[in-house]
Specification:
- This protein is α/β, with parallel strands linked by helices and about 475 residues long.
- About 35% of the residues lie in helices and about 25% in strands.
- The protein is built from 15 helices and 16 strands.
- The strands form two sheets. An eight-stranded mixed sheet has the order 1-10-12-11-13-16-14-15. An eight-stranded mixed sheet has the order 3-2-9-5-6-7-8-4, with helices on both faces.
- Helix 8 links the parallel strand 6 and strand 7.
- Helix 3 runs antiparallel to helix 15, helix 4 packs across helix 10 and helix 4 packs across helix 15.
- The longest helix is centred in the middle third of the chain and has 20 residues.
- The radius of gyration is 26 Å and the shape is elongated.
């Protein structure tokens, strides 16, 4: 009999050659082992999909968001509306039966746009649709009346620097993509001030327009004069560009009553399903609760926040409890540069080794196609395998690089990250504009997004091992 055992042991040797035992006496898992483990979640993934897309939870994230957005409205950092939104969500998460529901205090910027308008006086009277950009200073009480210089790029502005002094700079930069074009919104006032301009008006960073200005944050520099700055519609920017090209003199009157107040108290909103085996280890799902002060903030980022809540609700409804803690964070003051998330990171970074993955949905909740992922090759292979569980809804792709202001702090320091990848073809039609309302949202698409978010977060939270990094 002892020879039988010896033969069995010798047959195992090639499988574990060169591998060291773990402290618990087990051998490291091969990728084939991990694939088999993930395949074991097929039935759970199907149950999640059925509940979210076809079952009693169908349309729930949409309906919850509609009540929230219609009740609270837009939620600018430092505003009473944002305070009301945080209180609303604290109560809603408690009523949903989630665990460790609490608020974590942060300080956030408080800027208000006040009354604002712009009027073309020459060559004709024309009301220009504007939205002041975040942190902009006000004009003098009487406003600013000045000639306009229109440029298509920073390079053109610098070449025509002598012409710009004492004028209002209008940027008519073409929309290439958000990452490239948003430079004009964030840096336009500074570059105009450097050449002596008295104000800047920036073509909205939008891929489509129906005379709709799109706002957003902008940044001043310490040693550069602060001049008023606002976004204007694509149509008005192009019209003034045509006029200027013909040699027509353009004069605009601009009045803005913007004010910046001392930082205000706010909160990140947190809820959990506590892990059954490794409760100290965290899988984080998130979206941001704040928005701009126009529209309803339904798309940016109500949808992302509410599918993240829905992930915990679906898991709870199915009676599941993953091995790791699944933590929902609804960030505050993302639109001002991830202020709430940065303070959260500083508070929790000492436990960074326990964060398995950080996930954020902040680019709409339209038709999903997969995940953006940041992590090493081994972790990516595991995530690709997890995505095969979503074949029933045909959402299986893994794209390079997760995108999320609020999770970037973690990813830069080695924590794997994921972001929802969906159809962005219309996202910048509505982004940061009056058009960001519940009308943009689609319940069927939100159901699919919620299913993706839930399957991925649950499986990662329940697998025996954390993602490699």
């Amino acid at each position: 009999m002892k020879y039988v055992f010896l033969i069995f042991f010798m047959n195992l040797l090639p499988q574990y050659a060169g591998k060291s035992l773990r402290r618990d006496g087990s051998y490291p898992k091969t990728f084939e082992d991990i694939k088999n483990e993930i395949a074991g979640y097929t039935d759970i993934a199907k149950a999640i999909i059925d509940l979210a897309v076809h079952g009693k939870a169908q349309n729930r994230s949409y309906e919850r968001l509609a009540v929230f957005a219609d009740t609270i409205g837009p939620r600018l950092s430092g505003s009473k509306n944002l305070d009301a939104a945080i209180k609303y969500m604290l109560s809603a998460l408690q009523e949903d039966g989630l665990e460790n529901v609490h608020l974590e205090p942060v300080k956030v910027p408080h800027w208000e746009r006040g009354e604002e308008f712009a009027m073309m006086l020459e060559p004709r009277n024309h009301s220009i649709a504007i939205l002041g950009l975040g942190s902009s200073v006000a004009t003098p009480p009487e406003g600013i009346t000045a000639e306009v210089i229109v440029v298509a790029s920073f390079d053109e502005l610098h070449k025509r620097a002598q012409e710009a002094k004492g004028k209002i700079v209008v940027y008519n930069e073409p929309f290439i993509n958000y990452g490239e074009t948003v430079r004009y919104r964030s840096q336009g006032a500074v570059e105009a001030a450097k050449v002596g301009a008295v104000a800047s008006l920036i073509r909205s960073v939008a891929s489509f327009s129906i005379h709709s200005p799109h706002t957003g944050w902008q940044d001043y520099q310490p040693d550069v004069p602060r001049i008023p700055t606002a976004c204007i519609s694509v149509e008005d920017a192009e019209m003034m560009s045509r006029m200027s090209f013909r040699g027509t003199k353009i004069i605009v009157h601009l009045k803005m009553g913007a004010k910046t107040y001392p930082d205000s108290p706010s909160f990140n909103t947190v809820a959990e399903i506590v892990g059954s085996k490794y409760p100290e280890q965290i899988v984080l799902v998130s979206g941001h609760l704040d928005s701009w002060d126009v529209g309803q903030g339904a798309m940016d980022d109500g949808g992302g926040a509410f599918i993240s809540w829905e992930a915990l609700s679906l898991i709870k409804d199915l009676g599941l409890r993953p091995k790791r803690t699944l933590r929902l964070v609804l960030w505050t003051a993302e639109e001002q540069g991830g202020i709430g998330a940065e303070q959260y990171y500083q508070l929790h970074k000492e436990n960074i080794s326990n964060f398995d993955i950080v996930m954020e949905s902040d680019e709409g909740t339209f038709w999903p196609s997969g995940l953006g992922f940041t992590g090493n090759a081994k972790a990516r292979d595991i995530v690709k395998e997890i995505m095969t569980l979503l074949q029933p809804i045909n959402v299986t792709d893994v794209y390079d690089n997760a995108d999320g202001t609020d999770i970037d702090y973690w990813m830069r320091n080695g924590v794997p990250g994921a972001s929802l990848h969906d159809d962005l073809s219309k996202y910048f039609w509505f982004h940061h504009s009056q058009g960001d309302t519940m009308t943009v949202q689609d319940p069927n698409q939100m159901n699919l997004c919620a299913a993706v978010w839930t399957v991925v977060s649950y499986v990662i939270a329940d697998m025996e091992e954390m993602l490699p990094r």
